[in-house]
Amino acid sequence: MAVQELDPGQRELRKEPFSGYHSREITESDALLTETGPRTPMGEYFRRFWLPICLSDHLTDLPKAVKTLGEDLVAFRDKSGRAGVMHRHCSHRGTSLEYGIVSERGIRCCYHGWLFDVDGTILETPGEPPDSRLKDSFFHGAYPATEIHGMVWAYMGPPDLIPDKPHLDFFEMPGIRLIPFALPYESNWLNSQENSMDPFHAVFLHGTDGQHFQNPSIGLHPNIKWRITGAGNGMVYMSVRRLDDDWIWARMNYCYMPFESYVPTTIELPKPTYYNAAIYLRQHIPVDDRRSILFGWRAYGTDRTIGPDHTRNGWNLTDVDGQTRRPSYEAAQRKAGDFEAQGSIWYGVPRPAIEHKGTTDTGVVMMRRQLREILEGDVPAAWPEPAKGHGETPKARKILAQDSVINVRRRADPDEDWNLLTRVGEEITDAVVEGSDRYDGEQRVGWIVERVKEIEARHRG
Ligand code: FES
Ligand SMILES: [Fe+2]
After folding, report:
1. Which of 82, 108, 351, 381 is most buried, most CB within 10 Å of its CB?
2. What is the pLDDT of residue 340?
3. The ligand 1 atom nearest the CA atom of 90
């Protein structure tokens, strides 16, 4: 599936002033990366992962209508406490189960009372004769569901390929608390996933009026290096800024294909700081091809997850400025945030053929290329392994995001100083990647912290 291109003649015509007439055309999106409905390549890739569906708080005595990857679903927690996620329309004659009755075991359709267990077993068909075999002849379409730290997750893929449930190193951090949130976006999932590898938007969008970052140095042009990590399904960027003549700030964001991104803190960190972990663990999940939900956990409670006001997180609510719709159109125009900037990209879906990308877009280009290669089968390790079925907790996946603030004196020659920032950034990235490959848990963090201290000592000047 090739990405649509403008024809060369059209590009030539745009090299004149007042060429609006020649640039009226709005090209198609990159369907391979943006479309996630059933049987699309990206949709089938997403369906190989466990996906957040809604918040646990959404499951009350009433069912919750949700839409994920273009499929209309209903989520509920039955009265015996089990989460259910199934196709929304009753398999009898199609009434929406959002009007169903949450039962001791499963959910009952409001129309003729059919009762469905969480796995789709049809337990009762009340109007049918007692000897009817109808209910035993098929299952209602259901997906395995589970609740993880206040979020309902489901696996929507082929049953024989179900992978282990998500398990992050954060789940094992001593003292950690994870508050779930879910932010509805009126734009394609790719817009917000790409944003996680676009560090230059922070310089302008968040750097102009102190938006969501306390430290005004976010507005400085950073020294950036991107890198593909792991088996080809991870990606990091390291952005290094000089805070003053003595201190530099090395900030590392991480994403994991296809839909996770991990963001370090937004508050001003103490000098020195060695490895402050991510505070924002996010999953960018398609509702359909025009809408998405930015799910996530706000991590706090350890001395490595220092951030702003963690209590302000939930449905359409989070403590990082600019992630949700402003209270009015005028407020949005006066102070656009990520919500407006990402959400307004070409009516919600990127159009590669009419973008004009520069060096600052390297991360976006790398991410798109990586996703494309994964879908084309060139990165087999980026496809989840089916679970082994032993019921053991899988090994925790490590999150590579961090902030460090270290004492490295400014060099007199600006070029030398800039090259020094590059070197320090690369060395800290190496330390985080190597430490994550070699060690687990607190041993891993301790090892990385020691390496960052060594880097500081080596380059202090
Ligand atoms: S439509 Fe659901 S039981 Fe008839
Ligand atoms: Fe942002």
Report:
1. 108
2. 95
3. 2
What does the buried/exposed string (b/e) look like for 414-440 if buried means 16 or more CB atoms within 10 Å of the residue's CB? eeebeebbebbbbbbbebbbebbeeee
Given pLDDT bands bounded at 50, 70 and 90, which one contains residue 210? low
Phi, psi of 317 (to 5 degrees): -145, 130
pLDDT at 308: 86
Token pair, residue 417, equals 């100083």
Q: Exposure of 81 by Cβ count < 10 A (0-12 exposed, 13-18 middle, 19+ buried)?
A: exposed
* Mutate-to-test residue for ligand 1 from 112, 115, 122, highest number of ligand atoms within 8 A of CB: 112
Question: Whose CA is closest to atom 3 on ligand 1?
Answer: 112
Cβ contacts of residue 249 below 8 Å, gap of 6+?
Answer: 215, 217, 240, 241, 242, 243, 269, 403, 404, 405
Contact 82, 147 (CB under 8 A): no
Instruction: Find the mean pLDDT for residues 156-180.
Output: 96
Q: How far apart are CA 277 and CA 172, in angstroms?
A: 13
Does the pTM exceed 0.85? yes
User: What's the confidence (pLDDT) of residue 312?
Assistant: 93
In a 10 Å sphere around its CB, with 0-12 CB exposed, 13-18 middle and 19+ buried, how is residue 395 labelled? exposed
Which amino acid, one-letter code, is at 158? P
What is d(CA 89, CA 93) in angstroms, rounded to the nearest whole number?
8
What are the pLDDT digits (tens) for 143-154?
999 999 999 999
The amino acid present at 447, given as its one-letter code, is W
- Domains in the chain (CATH in brackets) are 8-44 (no CATH), 52-161 (2.102.10.10), 169-387+395-459 (no CATH)
Choose among 295, 255, 257, 294: nearest CA to 278.
255
Please enumerate in sequence order all residues whose Cβ is within 8 A of that of 123, keeping only pairs 6 or more positions apart, or say none: 105, 106, 115, 116, 117, 135
- 3-state secondary structure at position 396: coil
Atom 1 (ligand 1) nearest CA? 93
Helices and strands per DSSP (H, E), number in the chain: 10, 20
- Site residues for ligand 1, CB cut-off 6 Å: 90, 92-95, 109, 111-114
Q: How far is the CA of 131 from the centre of ligand 1 (A)?
A: 19
Which ligand has an atom closest to residue 108 CA? Answer: 1
At position 346, the amino acid (one-letter code) is: W
In sequence order, the 6+-apart residues with CB closer than 8 A to the CB of 380 are: none
Q: Residue 392: which residues within 8 A CB-CB, separation 6 or more?
A: none
Alpha-carbon distance of 285 to 371, in angstroms, equals 15
Q: Of all atoms in ligand 1, which is nearest to the CA of residue 97?
A: 2
Q: Measure 70 CA to ligand 2 centroid, in angstroms.
A: 26
